Amino acid sequence: MSGRTHARACPERTCLGCRERAAKGDLLRIVEIEGECVPDPRGTLPGRGAYVHPTLVCLDLAVRRRAFPRAFRGRGPFDTAALRRSLERGAG
Ligand SMILES: [Zn+2]
């Protein structure tokens, strides 16, 4: 509609699992809600977001590194069961 390209609006984030930088759109945003890691594919949920590649490999790496408590500035452990299920079902 407008003549703008999307190229400029392409911020990068670091995957909590493999620690590689990627375009925000290539990563899955995760927010913490009452101790649970909730996938936020549309990026609409409030709160502090963490980013991982939408793969079980990167999720497992992030869990093993205890990256979620660090990202969410909480004690954890954070429940990743629902997040894992959504990855098993969805992308990949
Ligand atoms: Zn990754």
UniProtKB/TrEMBL annotation:
Matches recorded under SUPFAM superfamilies: YlxR-like
Under Pfam families, the record lists:
YlxR
The chain positions of domain YlxR read 13-76
Q: Which protein are we looking at?
A: YlxR family protein
Under the heading Gene3D superfamilies, the entry gives:
YlxR-like (3.30.1230.10)
TM spans (from-to):
none
